[in-house]
Amino acid sequence: MISLFIGLLGTAGAANLDGVDEGCRDVATQIQNDIAANKGDYDEAAQADFLLNYFAMATTYSPLHGPIPGKSGTGTISLELAGIPPLGCERRLVLGATKTEDTNKTVVAPRPRLGFVFNKLGSVTPYGSFAYVPPVTVFGTRNVIVSGEAGFGARAGKDWQWGMRYHFTLMKTVAEIATPFDIEDEEKLDFYMGSTFGVDAMGGMEIGDWTPYVSVGFTDASTFFYIGDDAVVGNNGAPFAGLTSSAGVQYTHDWLDLAAEAYAAPGVIYTGRLRAGANF
């Protein structure tokens, strides 16, 4: 498909909409006209880089817990639901706005998590957790996601908490993403891989069973995208490497452990995440 881009630009002035979703054709026509007139802010490389970064950052392993996740010597098994906001036409159009990518497979990514809070080491409480999504095909997409974290928390006074954590995620997707120009063409699967890792500084305040918290950190992303239609590897010229942040609240009472969080990777994704689990 990328090999067709130069030829497609040669048709400037005549709208090429065969590979564009019907709901996006007005937007595509406007962008194509802007390109033909050498105006507008459409950037082919930036568009491709954004799409590659988006799904890596949508699956980062954010805290979804306070600086001290629970009582020492306990564990938690839970299910996370990470929101993946659908992308609009402006973000899905590629190759000079001559086609749309099939990116909106789902609006939420479920992820089972298993966590442990270890006995205190001096004044700090170490903890770790692990998450895994097996390769089950859903909505025509097969994903494998492996995530983990290791960190520690400490108290500052009676109610305040602070801590640090390291996190990583490796995700792989096999699906038809870079759709063909002709819907009658045979479907050919694409392969996408995204990996992220980072460190966060956390702060929170314990108020009874509730712990509101915030985290700010640095996350680095790497991606790989193999397009099955023409055996091309999509290069990411600007992989995300920057600040990320979370603000949320954790509720723990007896065996019940709940959390809700707003997550941001500025310029790429702003979303919400939920977690529900049981302590043991």
Descriptive keywords:
mainly beta; Lipocalin; 10-stranded antiparallel barrel; 13% helix; elongated
List the helices and strands and how they pair.
Blueprint: H1 5-9, H2 25-36, H3 44-58, E1 74-83, H4 89-92, E2 93-94, E3 99-100, E4 108-117, E5 124-138, E6 141-156, E7 160-175, E8 190-205, E9 210-227, E10 232-234, E11 241-253, E12 256-265, E13 269-279
Antiparallel strand pairs: 1-4, 1-13, 2-3, 4-5, 5-6, 6-7, 7-8, 8-9, 9-10, 9-11, 11-12, 12-13
Extended strand count: 13
Secondary-structure arrangement, i.e. CATH architecture: Beta Barrel
Q: Structural class of the secondary elements?
A: mainly beta
Using only C-alpha atoms, the radius of gyration works out to 22 Å
Largest sheet: 10 strands, antiparallel, barrel
Q: Quick recap of the structure?
A:
The chain is mainly beta and 280 residues long. The chain is 13% helix and 51% strand.
Provide an overview of this structure.
- The protein has 280 residues and is mainly β.
- The chain has one domain: Lipocalin (Beta Barrel), CATH 2.40.128.
- The chain is built from 4 helices and 13 strands.
- The strands form 2 sheets. The chain has a 10-stranded antiparallel β-barrel. The protein has a two-stranded antiparallel sheet with strand order 2-3.
- The longest helix has 15 residues.
- The N terminus is likely disordered.
